[in-house]
Write a structure and sequence with these properties.
Shape: globular
Strand content: 25-35%
Largest sheet: 5 strands, mixed
Oligomer: single chain
Radius of gyration: 13 Å
Distance between the termini: 12 Å
Number of strands: 5
Number of helices: 4
Order of helices and strands: EHEHEEEHH
Structural class: alpha/beta
Helix content: 25-40%
Length: 102
């Protein structure tokens, strides 16, 4: 996993930049695919946005590449990790990728 971290001023700016790079699929609408087959996905970009005044504004934007070449994004809010298994799966993939680099 060749994960890259980017810093943009807003989540919408991160999404705009990723779309320019060909990340056009909204994986928030296809969470089951990620959750059921995480081995078919690779996280290639991660953007973490931390709200300056409200921790509820925190979010992580994942740039995801599927084994079939499809590229898209997944946006996970701070509370999403407790609620949605796809967000947790992506978080675990991100951690696994960092461990494989070391």
């Amino acid at each position: 996993m060749d994960e890259q971290m980017y810093h943009y001023t807003t989540v919408s700016k991160a999404l705009e930049e990723l779309q320019k790079k060909g990340f056009t699929i909204d994986y928030n609408l296809k969470e089951e695919a990620i959750d059921e087959n995480p081995e078919n996905f690779e996280i290639v970009h991660v953007y973490r946005y931390e709200g300056e005044t409200d921790p509820g504004d925190e979010a992580t934007v994942y740039g995801i590449k599927a084994k079939n070449g499809d590229k898209g994004v997944y946006v996970a809010g701070n509370s999403t990790y407790a609620e949605k298994s796809a967000a947790m799966t992506l978080h675990e993939l991100s951690i696994k990728g960092r461990q494989e680099k070391n």
